[in-house]
Amino acid sequence: MWQALFLLLIGAAWAQQQSLPTKQLKLWLTISARKRFLEVSWQHAPAREGDHVLLTAQNPTNFERRVLPRGTPLAAFHSEEGSGAGEDQPAYVPVHGYTSTPSSVIRAVPSSNHQYWVSNGGSVEVVAAIKPSLAAQWFTTGVPFDYALSRNVTTHTDCYGYWASYIDDQGRILSKTCLRAYPRWMRDLRPVIGELRLRDLFIPGTHDSGSYRPNFDPLLRENLVTKYALTQDDNIRGQLLHGARYLDIRVGYYRPSEEKFFIYHGITKQRPLQEVIDQVKDFVLETNEIVIFGLKEFPVGFGKGLGVHRLLVSYLREQFGDLLVHPSLSWHATMNDMWKLQQNVILAYDKEEVVQDFPQLLFGGVEQRWGNVQTWMRLERHLRFINDFDVSRFSSRPVVDMAELTPETWDVILDKHGGLRKMADNINWRISQLYRDELGNHANIVAADFIRGTTLMDTALELNRRKPV
Ligand SMILES: *[C@@H]1O[C@H](CO)[C@@H](O)[C@H](O)[C@H]1NC(C)=O
């Protein structure tokens, strides 16, 4: 009996290995939350002597070695700033060899050997160089990302801003990646995902999507409130352009002002709801993508009755009009079902009595699986737990894994965790790895804080491309 089980397990492991694609070198570019530094990570790297990972601000087609007067301006590394550094979680040993021990970076500084790489005959400057020492690593460079670049992204943007190339000692590019937008990823995958339901896909989402502040610079203006209230760096349009298709919308009602509905994070007022709605509308009109507009919590001003809810639903109806996916389609609807009708926005309303009142407008809420935990160890346990033996897999209603840490009230008052940005930097690289390598196949929606620090979108493309119809 035990032997049979043992053989079965071996067999399963073997079968899994057989089906894996060959271990191809891959690179990713992300943006840290705290200092908005570019991060570069890779997997399956040969990590030979002489290999480099080079960051450029334009698309490099080739690299050549030069001998030099002075070193290229190199990334400044400090353990405080590394996403992966996490000195407060030394107990975590990464399964797949992710590390960003700063000591391994210091060796990367080639300023003493008077040689450096240039690209495209010298016309493209290398802005950071890293010497890979392991097959899989995640580094925070000292190169700041300017969110003005992100604001220039359109529904036609692909690569922009920065490129990372893995080169060998001859300057041959073994793998390359870029910072990019994914404005039409669902439509682009239509031949593959058209007959699938939202529940069948892997979908990146944002947590507290409306908690961003235009033109905010955390290095200049951070205070206790912004540290614990803001959760994203891109506005809603930016989040959608970069691939998020689930929005976590927490609306409050603020009677005194002319504009009544606002996004709230807890009790702090963020953006006007109108701004968020306009950005969603414009985006889907331009792209025909499908967006889940998840209304949750109603933290302020709704009272006990349903009066304010009714006001809100009428307002949403008036705003979105024909763009709303009709609830009669239900969660069984395939992507094509929605596209055929040109209905793009699902109002998933997390209050059952209200959904029953408006069966022509509202879908029921999408379940958010929130761990309410303060450490990576506990978050990882939560995420693994909800994805193992997951009965929701048999339902067509989407579920959201809430992949972020939540500070407790006193932690906020005492600033124990250093803010949501620092907390995001501690876990986003780990979430990226966990969903990419392990949980992605069965997971549905994953919502993160400061989503630009994750590779969830790359994982979505990778996994959704291979979905069995
Ligand atoms: C954004 O686009 C405008 C107009 O094309 C341009 O002037 C500006 O330099 C761009 N900003 C960045 C940061 O590239």
Automatic annotation (TrEMBL):
PROSITE patterns: PIPLC_X_DOMAIN (PS50007). InterPro entries: PI-PLC_domain, PLC-like_Pdiesterase_TIM-brl, PLipase_C_PInositol-sp_X_dom. Pfam families: PI-PLC-X. The keyword Oxidoreductase does not apply. SUPFAM superfamilies: PLC-like phosphodiesterases. Keywords: Signal. GO terms for molecular function: phosphoric diester hydrolase activity. One of its GO terms (biological process) is lipid metabolic process. Residues 1-15 form the signal peptide. The keyword Signal applies. Residues 192-351 form the Phosphatidylinositol-specific phospholipase C X domain. This is CG14945.
